[in-house]
# Entry
Amino acid sequence: MATLPGMAERTLTISSAGKTFRTTGWKIGWVTGPTPLVTAVRTAKQYLTYVSGAPFQPAIAVGLALDDAFFAGLGPDMADRAARLGEGLRAAGLVVHPPEATYFTTVDVRPLRPDGDGHAFCLELPERCGVVAIPNAVFYERPEHGRHLVRFACCKTDSVLDEAVERADLVVAIGHDTVEKPPFLMMSAGGPKVVHVGYQSATVEQVYHPDIEVIGDIGASVEALGARLQGRLTADPGMLELRRRILARVNDRAEEDRFPPTPQRVVHDVRKVMPDDGIVCLDNGMYKIWFARNYRTHVANTLLLDNALATMGAGLPSAMMAAMLYPERRVLAVCGDGGFMMNSQEMETAVRLGLNLVVLVLNDAAYGMIRWKQAVDGFPDFGMRFGNPDFVRYAEAYGAKGARVDAVEDLVPTLEAGFTAGGVHLVEVPIDYSENTRVLVDELRNRSPGVECS
Ligand SMILES: Cc1ncc(C[n+]2csc(CCOP(=O)(O)OP(=O)(O)O)c2C)c(N)n1
Ligand SMILES: [Mg+2]
# Structure
């Protein structure tokens, strides 16, 4: 308002550290404007609270002296957060009024609470999902006009926002097993109810303790549940948007073109060359976690991995069996350099049996997964590196074909060429594991405070 003609000398601008620096509760703010007006405010304030949060004031002074870039970025940053929050609230089924200038997103609660009682909605919310909102009615001269409206603050960190919107009422975990890494982590209290649908009873652990179990054939269970729910639930259009966001998070950086490629890129490229019915057989190493997280299947039993037992050396034999059973389908073994070398003599069997098979060997010259765990647990880098043979010549020594990928854009055509030619092929590609900690430790830890992941 102060920027409008003639208004600068008549306007006081008031703001607070609670919003700008996300320090709600410090109760420190500031007023800027023409000196006489500010002096008047200071005089009046003297008679109200006199002083507020004295020890915090120097900290806020430091904050105010931050680079202009911080303040310039604040507007777009908040707009971004408001958009994320809005998306999540919409996905939860609320009608969202996107903010035009404030830190607050107002929603109409009536889709979730037909009686439109915003006050009662806010009282229930902390209990229901550990999220706090403010009923807008308190700001209305005629409270009944704002009865159905409540507001959420968006000046929080991303992880807080994501967590708030992800707190569903009910989670139906289908076929989930805690040996999967990273596991689905339940909150210890205040989280949603969890229904476990599986072939076997859940192994109850610190991170997974379902409220109800539906045990039996999963397909039949899901159909029976679906039939019982038919007509009793209104479809939530927000779920599609939520699904899009989850996929976007999983696909984040999947097309990054650094070399050596990241695991995300390797999974992305493998998906590209595998038809829907193509079978990917994993050995055991770091990449297995990335494939389990990022590789989306469209046909049952097209991503084979042995999760808990996790024996290295299993990938090549399992791919050979798949190739024997389904000679008309594309079959790819994905192995680490360590795991491949534990059973690589089976290349001879594969060649002798005349199989059509491509073996992708991810070369980090290390037991990458254990090396990473060692680092995450704060140990020095010790004993996990090794040298490898020349994989191309090694494959050739067995009568197979070998190829080495030297540029990120060559991975897809090299795999493609192996499948097209038929026979046994080994494709070696180096891999950059620097993404492991960012996604699989930091992100998980932020999302599940209080739970230690190992
Ligand atoms: C037979 C066997 N020995 C040891 C382990 C423990 N282990 C799990 S992953 C891993 C390292 C795998 O290295 P590599 O195959 O090169 O894959 P990377 O993690 O480097 O991608 C080890 C030693 C195991 N799972 N199986
Ligand atoms: Mg390795």
